[in-house]
Amino acid sequence: MSPQKRKKLSKIRSELDKLDNSLIKLIKKRTNLVKKVLKLKENRNQIVDQKRIQFILKNIKKKSLKNKIDPKITNRIWKNMIWSYIDYERRNFKKN
Predict the structure, then answer these.
(1) Three-state secondary structure of the chain
(2) Interval 8-65: pLDDT, tens
(3) Sign of CA dihedral 79, 83, 85, 86
(4) What is the pTM of this model?
(5) Quick check: 80 pLDDT over 60?
(6) How far apart are CA 24 and CA 30, in angstroms?
(7) What CA–CA distance (Å, rounded) separates 65 from 79?
(8) For residue 16, is it left (φ>0), alpha (ψ between -120 and 50) or beta?
(9) Measured between alpha carbons, how far is 91 from 62 in angstroms, rounded to an integer?
(10) CB neighbour list of residue 89: distance below 8 Å, 6 or more residues apart
(11) Under a CB-based contact definition with an 8 Å cutoff, are residues 74 and 57 in contact?
(12) Half-sphere exposure of 31 (CA within 13 A, CB side)
């Protein structure tokens, strides 16, 4: 790789790192909201809501297409995020 390309690569990676920092802050906000939702759930069977999951994934697909993002990428990201939070809720569920 030429020195010029290495410099460009380094700059792009720096931008990616900054973006990752922003994403971490958003994930923290999302986690705090999930914690609030979890407090409202009275039964473990309320943790997984298939209708809500399908609604979210359908909306993400629409938004992805509108923004010219490959919907396979966003679908995988959101599915992983949803199931990660479901796992979080299951681990932290406390019956009132």
Answers:
(1) CCHHHHHHHHHHHHHHHHHHHHHHHHHHHHHHHHHHHHHHCCCHHHCCCHHHHHHHHHHHHHHHHHCCCCHHHHHHHHHHHHHHHHHHHHHHCCCC
(2) 999 999 999 999 999 999 999 999 999 999 999 999 999 999 999 999 999 999 999 9
(3) positive
(4) 0.88
(5) yes
(6) 10
(7) 17
(8) alpha
(9) 32
(10) 34, 37, 38, 41, 47
(11) no
(12) 10
* Domains by residue range for the chain, with CATH: 3-92 (1.20.59.10)
What per-residue confidence (pLDDT) applies to 94?
85
